Amino acid sequence: EQLGVEPAEEAGRYEEEDAAQAMERVEAGEADCSPGAPGPEEPGGLTWLVPEGSSSSRVIVHVDLDCFYAQVEMISNPELKGKPLGVQQKYLVVTCNYEARKLGVKKLMNVRDAKEKCPQLVLVNGEDLTRYREMSYKVTELLEEFSPVVERLGFDENFVDLTEMVEKRLQQLQSDELSALTGSGHVYNNQYINLHDIVHIRLLVGSQIAAEMREAMYNQLGLTGCAGVASNKLLAKLVSGIFKPNQQTVLLPESSQVLIQSLSHVKEMPGIGYKTAKRLEALGISSVLDLQTFSPKILEKELGISVAQRIQKLSFGEDNSPVTPSGPPQSFSEEDSFKKCSSEVEAKNKIEELLASLLNRVCQDGRKPHTIRLIIRRYSSENHCSRESRQCPIPSHVIQKLGTGNCDVMTPMVDILMKLFRNMVNVKMPFHLTLLSVCLCNLKALNTAKKGTIDYYLTPSLSTTSRSGKRSFKMKDSHMED
DNA sequence: TGGGGTTAT
DNA sequence: ATAACCC
């Protein structure tokens, strides 16, 4: 899968390969992409080519795992490998492996339709996300080893800013190695590579790193995926999907217009969602070119200056948003959907289940949530996706009990949740819910406050109760609650 | 459409 | 608290 050796029309062939074969191809590729650059004279490295970071352009990689849930299931149970496999949540096949896709199964397909299309389809239940979530974080952690700036997008996608790493590698590069420099994977649009162009060079080095990332994912975690390398997140994401599965593509700047113009509708642009696409449609905007050429003033008036300016820049392939390190999660939530819940007792039982799982997760995380939220969805024929929520601070005495083994923290928290429930739902009237969700958020690190510091005396658990067992002075409640 | 996530207002 | 976006 060395640059330049793969004509686009051959890409389909790789879908027949298994992951191991494809990986072997990656390693076995022959150098091919050098147009025969002149050997730079300076023996020390390439710093002469890069005048003090004059190139402000970035190198971003988007890493996208192939049918992630299905891959995790096949690792859990290798007997599933080679069979058409779907992952089921309720009555939906939320994702499936490539065997199943070949037989006509699509993502988010109804189980009935899928079974009709593909009677041999093997289904596994994927409503419990625990193993997917754990594997997802292993991937992110692996990528963080390459460079700490990793942004998660869902469970199966990550952005990594490779700019600094590429700079370092270029400084290490001996000048005579430049003429032999080769990227890895496909070049979008089969574009000609100019090794005199520092931007090309940097992106090629980015593609080498991307290949190393995919290799590490396969060797260490057994996972395959795609990667896209480009100068910003939008383009990296768009280009990562060009050759699938288990392949990678680099976008050189001269082809960015070809890439974005290849989208058949503005809705395909990441950042333009369902609502915005509908509003654009009402303005007669459906293609990327429509959006590029639309009056900015009118667009600002219709969508607000923020959205208008952002999406119009996106339509030109411009995206200056940084890769924001995700770090640990901001919230933990568990939800369950169902046909009907119409009694308080029923709701309480479901809420207890959700909360019990959450408490395990939050306990493992180590940080403590300071806010709890209950979310419901009411039955209604039209507005299906609308949800309502109520949240409140978790009392500090409950926070302190979190993670302390046999202490019953369920009872006070269920009491809080049921108050939130009755605040949203008039239980004296008939009701019909189709979803319940509990979210623990506003996570704060454990007390690292040291004795003798201000923090120590302002930290209720340390300065009042835990030292002597009795309060040495009284804290104001307002300091102890959120 | 499921079972998650994020940020902006 | 909701609305938009992402998977």
From TrEMBL:
Function in brief: Error-prone DNA polymerase specifically involved in DNA repair. Plays an important role in translesion synthesis, where the normal high-fidelity DNA polymerases cannot proceed and DNA synthesis stalls. Favors Hoogsteen base-pairing in the active site. Inserts the correct base with high-fidelity opposite an adenosine template. Exhibits low fidelity and efficiency opposite a thymidine template, where it will preferentially insert guanosine. May play a role in hypermutation of immunoglobulin genes. Forms a Schiff base with 5'-deoxyribose phosphate at abasic sites, but may not have lyase activity.
Protein species of origin: Callorhinus ursinus
Gene Ontology terms for molecular function: damaged DNA binding; DNA-directed DNA polymerase activity; metal ion binding
Localization of this protein: Nucleus
Shown residues in whole-protein numbering: 2 to 483 of 746
UniProt name for this protein: DNA polymerase iota
Enzyme's top EC category: transferase
Region feature Disordered, mapped onto this chain: 1-48
GO cellular component annotations of the record: nucleus
GO BP terms in the entry: DNA repair; DNA replication; translesion synthesis
EC number assigned by the record: 2.7.7.7
Keyword hit for Secreted: no
Cofactor(s) needed: Mn(2+); Mg(2+)
Family per similarity comment: Belongs to the DNA polymerase type-Y family.
Superkingdom, natural source: Eukaryota
Residue span, UmuC domain: 60-273
